[in-house]
Structure formats: C-alpha cells, structure tokens
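re the bet — no i am not wrong, look at it urself. input seq straight from the record:
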Amino acid sequence: MCVRRSAFGDGGRQPGQFYGVHSIATDSKGNVYTTETWEGKRLQKFVYKGIGNVMAANQGVLWPKR
C-alpha cells in the first residue's frame, strides 16, 4: 500500500497561512475556503487545480520564499 501525503498552509497571518481558523468549506469545483475570526478576520480561497503528484518544494506557503 502506498500512502501519499500532501499539505498546504502554515501558522501565520500572510497569504496561505492560518491564524485562528474558524470554518473550512469546499464548493462543487473542489475549491477550499477558510475563515478566521481572530485578529485576521479574513476569508481565504484555495483554488483546486487537479490531482497529481506535488513535489515537496511546492508544498507549504507561498510567502515567505524558502
């Protein structure tokens, strides 16, 4: 059996990071939405781009660059 893992996001207040997530939802197109109630008070949308292999270098947050 092969287990594939993938991840996105991290703790923080920048785009792609989470700080006090309150709700998580998806739509019929596979997009993921998160809302935060702590000081960020924002909504983030993560666009579904299909299923495939994701290299470790392409996982995590977009900012700051590693």
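see?? The longest strand covers residues 21-26. told u. also The mean pLDDT is 79. so pay up
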